[in-house]
Specification:
400 residues
């Protein structure tokens, strides 16, 4: 959880300021603050706040709306300044990013396309916005955004934590929510109305987590999140909206990429080094971008298509020993023909829990599927699962 804090930077004055919502013209030009850098950090308990976030330095104040809004298939972040603007430009280190437009004398918007841009922002990478006033010196705003659960309603038997944290799991970005169930309740399931279902996993006791890839997050942003738990045949349900909200705002006249440089934090590095061998989930050490800056963990590479094909062919030997006579009587392929039908290019990675009949934890397991090779063209699908921590084969199974 981010906590509002004041940081002392060498040769730079930094003041912590609270979110507020002054009018667009309430500060005369040149009378709005001191210093060369200002920064605001928002407490997670303010997830539903409607107050603007403010950052100000000598001669310039910037406000941002706390929540992004959906528009034309993407999402827009609205901001304004205390001075008239000639222009604005958004970027991330080494590249232009999103589309920023001046919409009024002192207002502007930053528009993010769905997919890569939105996923990058939601994962915790800050976006920088250069502001060019008509008079006075310009500055660069830095904005951090995170997904949050808001407008939570339903049964008190399910407690949904507001934070949805981007985490690093076996080289992949996972958006993780958390839930706590009342005593005696279990079998938590989560889903969205507009996308894939996040995968709910029991952590022990009454604690659960639910993990989502970007597609599931996008579905939750569009259609909200639903949760359901069970006890003795009774069902409890909870629902929530999912919003992208500004969690941190900074304003500087120094080089933004240097002021907010992505460096490996010593505490994160020490935590990663202390994780037990075979760990693939780094959530206990920090959020996705913090762990990524330290290089994550050294893990086995995902199995190659040739390895997956060889493992399926090997499994078919024992499978045919048990079922070969029935297959022959039904006109199916011989063992040799079935093995020949295994095509390394036909394997698909399974990334959604609902597409895996054995519902392996996607955070810890690679799962691949292949069309049927025993009765080609049938509805049977073959699955091959591997442990991400060791790269070892977990199981080969078929499903109709």
């Amino acid at each position: 959880m981010l906590r509002a804090s004041c940081l002392l930077l060498a040769l730079t004055t930094l003041a912590c300021v609270a979110p507020d919502a002054p009018g667009p013209d309430d500060l005369p030009e040149g009378e709005d603050g001191t210093g060369s850098l200002d920064e605001t950090v928002v407490d997670d308990t303010k997830a539903d706040s409607t107050a603007e976030l403010r950052a100000r330095i000598d001669g310039l104040t910037v406000w941002f709306d706390p929540a992004m809004v959906a528009a034309d298939g993407g999402y827009v972040l609205h901001g304004r300044a205390s001075r008239n603007l000639d222009g604005a430009f958004s970027w991330v280190p080494d590249d232009a990013f999103a589309t920023t437009t001046v919409t009024g004398k002192r207002t502007f918007e930053v528009r993010f396309a769905p997919g890569y841009e939105l996923n990058t922002l939601a994962s915790g990478l800050p976006i920088f916005v250069d502001l060019d006033p008509t008079t006075g010196e310009g500055a660069t705003a830095a904005v951090w955004v995170a997904p949050r659960l808001t407008a939570i309603t339903g049964s008190s038997r399910i407690y949904l934590h507001t934070a949805i944290d981007p985490v690093w799991v076996a080289y992949e970005l996972v958006y993780r929510g958390r839930a706590t169930l009342a005593s005696g309740w279990g079998e938590l399931s989560t889903w969205t109305e507009a996308g894939p279902a996040p995968q709910a996993v029991a952590l022990g006791g009454r604690a659960w987590r639910f993990d989502a890839g970007y597609d599931a997050l996008a579905g939750a942003l569009a259609g909200g999140l639903r949760a359901q738990a069970h006890r003795d045949g009774v069902v409890a349900e909870k629902s929530a909206s999912v919003a992208l909200r500004v969690t941190r705002l900074g304003l500087t006249r120094d080089g933004a990429a240097e002021v907010w440089a992505r460096t490996c934090d010593a505490d994160v590095a020490a935590c990663l080094a202390a994780l037990p061998p075979g760990t693939v989930d780094t959530a206990s050490c920090g959020r996705y971008r913090e762990v990524q800056a330290c290089g994550g963990l050294d893990l086995p590479e995902a199995p190659s298509p040739l390895t997956v094909a060889d493992d399926l062919r090997a499994h078919l030997v024992g499978w045919y020993a048990d079922h070969g006579a029935d297959v022959a009587a039904s006109g199916g392929n011989s063992l040799a023909d079935a093995q020949a039908a295994v095509d390394p290019t036909a394997f698909e990675r399974v990334t959604l829990a609902e597409e895996d009949p054995e519902a392996h934890d996607q955070a810890t397991t690679w799962v691949y599927r292949h069309p049927d090779v025993v009765f080609p063209g049938s509805d049977i699908v073959w699955f091959v699962a591997y442990d991400k921590a060791t790269g070892a084969l977990v199981r080969v199974y078929d499903f109709n």
